[in-house]
Amino acid sequence: MTSHTAAINEHLALEFQASHTYLAMSIWLRERDLIGFSSYMLNKSTEERGHASKFIAYLVDSECKVQLPTIESPEREWQSVKALFDKVYEMEKTVTKSINNIYTLSEQEGDRTATAMLDWFVGEQLQEESEARFVLKRLRLADSSAAALILLDQQFLDGTLLANVKAGGAFDVAGAGGGAAV
Question: What is the pTM of this model?
């Protein structure tokens, strides 16, 4: 097994652990009637399993051995929604670091198919960290205001909270419909 395929097998633990943790977060949020936040984290859980599946497909297609990891039971309690999203952001940064490491190893080993596969993950992680950072900034602004938290929850529920971030952010003038001639 090459070093980059060994690193991919190790990385699977991060993807599956994130999926499991995000599911626990979804449950915790649902128990507090934060349906929008809960739905978002449930979708993130499913997304992380999909990421693991992409890595597994690469390993299988490359005739490499897949080593499924043991996953630890995730935390089940957080002090606040902000503390929960602090954990999300921390986990996403860890995943990004791991992907960057795999990319470097793949380049060093000259595996172009691996770097081509990883290109998608590099862009995905930029988006994942951007979303987590945006939510954290909104939660900091909301501070301890229950009304603000409910508003953010409703924006998650109706899909408007992250629409601008998913569309490319505030600086994507053309994508936001603001492409007026200069």
Answer: 0.88
